[in-house]
Predict the 3D structure of the following.
Amino acid sequence: LPDTGFSNSIVVSRYREKTPGSAKAAKEAADRFPSGVTHDSRYLEPYGLYVDRAQGSHKWDVDGHQYVDYFGGHGALILGHNHPKVVEAVHRQVDKGNHFGASHKLEVRWAELIQKLIPCAERVRFTASGTEATLMGLRLARAYTGRNKLLRFKQHFHGWHDHMASGVSSHFDGTPTTGVVVGVTDNVLLAQANDEAGTRMIVEANPDIAAVILEPTGASFGRVPVKPSFLAFLRQITKEKGIVLIFDEVVTGFRVSPGGAQAHYKITPDLTSLAKILAGGMPGGAIVGKKEIMDYLDFAVTKARGVEKVYHPGTFNGNPMAAASGIATLEIIDSTDACAKANDYGARWRKAMNEVIALEGVPWAAYGAFSGCHIFTNPAKKSISPKTFDAEAMPDTELKGQWSPTIVHKLRLGMIVNGVDFNSSPGGICSCMHSDADLNKTAEALRSTLKLLKDEGEFR
Ligand SMILES: Cc1ncc(COP(=O)(O)O)c(C=O)c1O
């Protein structure tokens, strides 16, 4: 960390006092994993929290402390941790077998629910992750159109495979990130979301575009929001030019609404990548969409058409454990108001955060949509008010990726000290299980954290 005073921080010493068990575990992990972590966004200075168990909207660390959880299994847990019906379904399945190396009825039921909920899902192909789902979506688009190029948007995240690695948090000029070859990035065009004229120019100048992919509510679940009118524009221009439109609904699917962002905005893409909630907290993903595109995975259709099938193995595709968990989760989403409940908490959560920020007179703001909350830590130190803050009017570079890691880590540490686990965005994602008591605790935690940060001179 580019640190001035981080090691002498009051917040850091409070964190160390509270979490000796995590410190011990992190020390052991440092000898095993690069940076001691298994996912980049779990990296936290001086060390991350080690969690022992979780239930509903809460989790407990190895020292026995309870936290209100806003990591939500990286967005997978809209029903909270350990929903009894999901737990029961997984228990039942583990007794029957966790991998058959064969087709099974659960995968058929799982796909039936996806088809019921997600408007574009004429056909479904399961993968083991969201990264694999977007990778397959892009490959199918190339097979279907016979074109090479991909158009994506700056800061949108689609997993970590080579094609989607530049322009997420760096390399906005489209040059390859470390370990990726130029030949790959030569075929990826980077555009600015919400810029209709600029996007049209790129599309007109490149007749070889196979697919346009984006996160439909904006980069990182709306940290950089996308206007619904831009989605309509993309639907229209891709139709006009014969380009495959892919909504990456790995986060928004079954969350924004039971039918994802596409059902909410009534804009149907050609393909959709799904993961996270899809498998209810187990590893799993899917690419779903129009039959005529998905047919590139079909043995008989490709043979009849005289085209080469897109090859797709994958040991954990449609895994029975993930299917059991996914079915239980999607049945609840289909039959209850779980999405609406999470969205309602999200709105109250953002409001409560802004009230605390205003009360403490700090030049920050909370924003977002649906069941997410982003904390804007104002890297350019602009004069803003949480009451009037408009994320759409801010430069995207200030909304995502440009903030000081020191302040973000301190904010997270301060919240942990006060019993709340925010994610590294910073902010988080909520479930339908978050309660009024959680909201009050979160507001109090933010207030205490801002006071601590003031005490150590952060806002001077
Ligand atoms: C929008 C989006 N797409 C794709 C992915 C990649 O999914 P996975 O982590 O399952 O590979 C993520 C993960 O956070 C995501 O948020």
